[in-house]
Amino acid sequence: MAFLRHTLWLLWKDLLLERRRHESLLAMFFFGTLLLFIFQFALDVQPEKAADMAPGLLWLALVFCGTLGLMQLFQPERENHCLDALLLAPIDRAAIFLSKVLFNLMLMALLEIVVLPLFWVLFNLAAWDRLPWVFLYGLLGTVGFCVVGTLFSALTLTARGREILLPLLLLPLLIPVVLATIRGMEIILRAGDFSESLPWLHLLIGFDLIFSTAGMLVFEWVIES
Amino acid sequence: MGKWGFVFLAYGIVWLAIAGYFFCLKSRMRKAEARLAQLKSTGKIKHAS
Amino acid sequence: MAKIEKKRGSGKILGALALVFILAGLYFALIEAPPDANQGDVQRIMYIHIPSILTAYLSFFIVFVGSCLYLWKRERRDDILARSAAEVGVLFTALTIVEGSIWGKPTWGVWWTWDARLTLTAILLMIFAGYMMLRSLIEDEDRAAVSAAVVGIIGFLDIPLIHMSVYWWRTLHQPPSILRPDKAPWENVHPAMLIALAINFAAFLLLYFYLLSLRIRVGETEERVKREMLGGIA
What we know:
heterotrimer, A: mainly alpha, C: mainly alpha, flat
C-alpha cells in the first residue's frame, strides 16, 4: 500500500537525520538519567518504598524527556520550508502523522530499553523476570504519549510560548495513560501477577486505539501550512 | 465558622461571581456596540464623499 | 435589525425566567428543604454543587459540538459557539471546585482532598484553560480556530477515559472503611430535597443558556466590529 510505503519513507528520513545530527536521543538520555538521580536526592527514596514510588518516578522522567522530544519533533520541517514541500507532495497527511508518531515512539522506546534496566538497578527493584511486563506497560503508555503528543506538537507549532503551552495542553489529556501505566507497573512490581492489572491494560490499549484513529483522521486539518 | 457560615460562603461566592460575569458581559456588549456604531457612521461618511 | 431585536427579546425572557427559578431555588434550598441527617445544614451546598457540575460538563459538550461543526463547515458562528461555551464553562467549572472545596471543609475537615470528583473537576478546568490559552497564543485567527476545534474534540473524547482512570485510581486501593462523602445522599431523600434540587437544576440550566446566549451575542458583535474595521480599510 502506498500509505504504508510513504509512512516508512518519511520515518526513514527522520531516522537518518537523527543519526546524523544526534540531537534528540542523546539529550533525552542524559536528561532522563539526570532526573532519576535528582529524584533520588530530592525524595530520599527508602529501599522499602522504592517499589511503590519507582513507577511514578520513572514515568515522570519519561514524560519530561518525551516532552523534550516533542518540542523537536517538527523542527526539521520548519527549516527551509520543508513543511510546505511535504504538504504539496501527493502524500496522505495521515502518513506524515504516523511517521512522526513512529519516529518519536522509536526514540522513546530506545530510551526506555536503556533507562529501564538502569532504573531497576538504581532503585533495587524486584526480580528481573518482571522487567518485560513493566516494559510492556511502559511501551503501551509511550504509544499513547506519542500519539497525542505528536498531534499537539503539530497543533502548537505556530503558537507563542510553545514550551509551556504544549505540556499544559498535553498533560491533563494524558492522565489516563499516566494512571494506567503507573498503576499497572505498580501491580506487577508488587504482586508479580499480571491479571490483577488487566483493567488498566485494557484502558491503555483502548486509549491507544482511540487516539491513533482520531489523530490520523484529524491530522490533515492540524498541519495546514 | 458555623455550618450556615459555610453555606453562605459558598452561595455568596457563586452568585457574586455569576453576577460579576454578567455585568462584565454587558459592559463588553456596550463597548462593542458603541464601536460598531462609530465605525458604521464614519464608514457612511467615507462612502458618501 | 429585526432579527437582532427578536434575539434580544427572547434573551430577556430567558433571563427573567432564570431569575425566577434562581430565587425559587434559593428559597427551596435554604428554607424549605430540611437539613441532612448526617451533615446538617452544610449539605445545602449540594443544591448548587450538583447543578454546577452538570452545567460544566454540558458546556464541554457544547464546545465539542461547536468544534465538530466548525471543522465540518468552517462557519464563524460555530467557532463563536465553541469559544463562548468554553468561557462560560470555565466559570462554572471553577465555581464547582470552589463549592466542592467549601463543602469539604466542614465535612472532611480539609479544604482539599484528592477524591474522584474534585480531582476530575480540576482536570476539566485545566483542559478548558488549555483550550483558551491555545486560542489566545496563536496569532492567525483561522489557525487558532481550527487548532482549538481539534483540542475541543480530542478533549471531549478523552473525558470518559479520564473519568474511568481517576475513579479506578481512587477506588481500587481505597479501604472500605473510609467515608465516601462524594456519594450523593440518595438513601433517605426527603421530597423537599428533591424539589429543591430540581428547581436549582432548572435555574442553573436557564442561567447557563442565558449567559451563553449573551456571550455569543458579544462574540458576534465583536466579529462584526472586526469586519467593519477591515472593510473600512479596504
